[in-house]
Amino acid sequence: MNRKNLSALKKNHKKILSQLNKKKIYKIYNEFSSSLKVKEDLAVAVSGGPDSLALAYLTKCYSLKNKIKVKYFIVNHKLRKEATSEAEIVKKILRKIDIQCTVLNWNGKKPSKNIQAAARDKRYSLLANECKKNNIKYLLLGHHLNDFFENFLIRIVRGSGLNGLISLGKNTKYRGQDLNVIRPLLNLEKKDLLYVSKEVFSFFVKDPSNTNEDYKRTRIRNLLHSLEKEGLDVKKLKLTINNLKDSDKSIKFYVDKNLKKNTFFSNKNNTYILNYNFFEQSHEIIFRSLTNIIQRVGKKYYPVRGKSINELIEKINKKSFNKVTLGGCFIERAHETTLISQEISYKV
Description:
alpha/beta; 5-stranded antiparallel sheet; 11 strands
């Protein structure tokens, strides 16, 4: 790069960072930065909504300050006629802050049912593949505090247990791969990200599905607005969830203790041996311990459904229990112990 182009680039970067001179944006950036704390190459998922555009800007600032490389990706699901043109508009908008964004297209036939779930799975798959190609181990997503609350209420409606209620974590692994999915905006409210997007870009895409009450998440979002009018504000809901998190930590402590004291794992046979005391714990400890073991031995990304685990516990507690299969595992009784090994399927 010649001296003239380098000078222009530095001037542009200085202009990008100048937005941090605004007190509110600076405060939001500091929250984002302290939540991220990664000094390696990153990938960012951008949709064009205010949350992801704010994430794109904050990550750009972070990359300039920490001198790291970042790849930006837009997933075009092609579920709406406007999707392709919107993706191009977002690409153009991001160039203003020196971001070159790549569009990943979901080609092929689309499902007629569970569209949002299918779109989410495809989005993660496309992003994970690009991260693998570029040898990137950290993928940033734009989920924020309001998303966490929505997820919490959706899980309540589904009858989830404590672990499920608080399952939207800041840092998770993608399907056992060497890819860390990070949500550095989880402590920030939607209104904060909307402010950043308006100040930096004066633009964001309005997705009509966000107001479509055919989708459960939209109905839950509207329910949250109603609950706010009844006095359940952000601070109170956050306090409730933090209290649940504390309880969850206590349970995890005893689950780890149960797994260490009352199980033996044979690497050679990929088999867990559970002693009699394993089942002398509280139901929740047994439930989580079994879920953990079956997921590991069965080598599944998603844990077995809670209903199936409860039914398994009932069977094991009966004297007549002999053997059963669940989650890719073979579970059987051997005297006063229970063995859990991987179910082997033979191809003919």
